[in-house]
Amino acid sequence: MAYVSSGTTDFDSRQFRTAMGQFCTGVTVITTIDADGAPAGFACQSFAALSLDPPLVLFCPQKTSRSWKIIEAAGNFCVNILSNHQQDVSATFGAPGTDKFASIEWDPSPAGLPVIRRSITWAECTVERVEDGGDHLIAIGRVTTLGEMLQDKPLLFYRGGYLSTEHPRVTPAQAELDDFLTWTGGDTWL
Ligand SMILES: Cc1cc2nc3c(=O)[nH]c(=O)nc-3n(C[C@H](O)[C@H](O)[C@H](O)COP(=O)(O)O)c2cc1C
């Protein structure tokens, strides 16, 4: 008989959070502009590329997020992918505050959304669809503009703290990358 991994069905939200914190992610700041022209945004690790054709991304805001309400009303947002020089930016946007942009240098994207300086890259998106996700929402966006890319290393978030990569990553062959987002079967994956 095969070995059965032991586990527990009796876990609380702290244990759940600790387990999920073993999954290392990048960090983004999702920004927008409100009806009065003021910038808004929040730090977000639950960002992912979703589809290549059409070009879709997703992120998961808490239902209580003030920035999400502004993004939903605006109908568009900009994903800023943070570099390892921007831990302070993550901390600023990861805490509630009346003027998170006070100490932040940013430039407008083509649609006027905040592009935070020194971000590795950015993507301007329109809100395509929103799904329920328990105490969060799943927001799906269509990418309309891609920003320039810097060669900096990413800021990583792991076990509730920040990390960065020590070495430049090994770039896989282009052929391996081509179907990355549209993989539908077979047993190859990056
Ligand atoms: C590294 C990091 C990652 C985060 N990821 C998320 C996330 O994926 N979804 C979310 O709703 N909040 C996330 N947060 C928390 C929000 O950024 C934080 O609650 C913020 O105060 C929300 O601001 P808002 O009310 O203006 O939306 C994250 C915070 C940090 C520091």
From TrEMBL:
<comment type="similarity">
    <text>Belongs to the non-flavoprotein flavin reductase family.</text>
</comment>
<dbReference type="Pfam" id="PF01613">
    <property type="entry name" value="Flavin_Reduct"/>
</dbReference>
<feature type="domain" description="Flavin reductase like">
    <location>
        <begin position="20"/>
        <end position="164"/>
    </location>
</feature>
<dbReference type="InterPro" id="IPR012349">
    <property type="entry name" value="Split_barrel_FMN-bd"/>
</dbReference>
<keyword id="KW-0503">Monooxygenase</keyword>
<protein>
    <submittedName>
        <fullName>3-hydroxy-9,10-secoandrosta-1,3,5(10)-triene-9, 17-dione monooxygenase reductase component</fullName>
    </submittedName>
</protein>
<dbReference type="InterPro" id="IPR002563">
    <property type="entry name" value="Flavin_Rdtase-like_dom"/>
</dbReference>
<keyword id="KW-0560">Oxidoreductase</keyword>
<dbReference type="InterPro" id="IPR050268">
    <property type="entry name" value="NADH-dep_flavin_reductase"/>
</dbReference>
<dbReference type="GO" id="GO:0004497">
    <property type="term" value="F:monooxygenase activity"/>
</dbReference>
<dbReference type="InterPro" id="IPR054682">
    <property type="entry name" value="HsaB"/>
</dbReference>
